[in-house]
Amino acid sequence: MVAPPSCSLWCNNAASARPSRALVAPTLRKLRPTHALRRDETMPQAMDALSLLMKDHDLVKDIFKKIESSEDEAERKSLFEQFMDEIAIHERIEEEIFYAALQKLPNARADVMEAFEEHHVVDMIMSEMDVEPNDEKWDAKFTVMKENVEHHIKDEEEKLFPKAEKLLGKETLGKLGAQMADLKEEELRALDEQAEEEEP
Prior knowledge:
This protein is an all-alpha fold. The N and C termini lie far apart (about 60 Å). It is built from seven helices and no strands. The chain has one domain (about 50-200).
């Protein structure tokens, strides 16, 4: 029997197979008020990795509800742009810090690879979606993407996160949370700078 490739090779292949952030979100859009609010008021420094990721999950689900309930095309477009920004930052901090720590542990390897692939599926659907939510095809793709994201969130919160809590422990999760918060702050700052450059 041929031995499977190492986890680092699997993870590198999974990451390289995903479309670039430039493809998923062709331009970094102007920072919306919700971003500033999250950075200033809802990202305490002491938040551990799991709490930070679950807060992101809650925000994404809230954006989905607002998109589905809105009948205003401009509002739906703005909300979808916000979702694209949020998911790009969320994926980066999760993959580069949280998954990177977990993939070193044999008991979590398969779960991490599945999570990478779930990110990949969502990114591929997003790359095919126009920013303008203006037709039935867009609605269909949005529904499929939303279902995939919700499945991913459910898997993580019910399976991966409890396993991470057991394998990594409170202290390590706290350190990872601090690293993730720092990277998230860096990404949000980049969006701020991009918005300032785009101001007329």
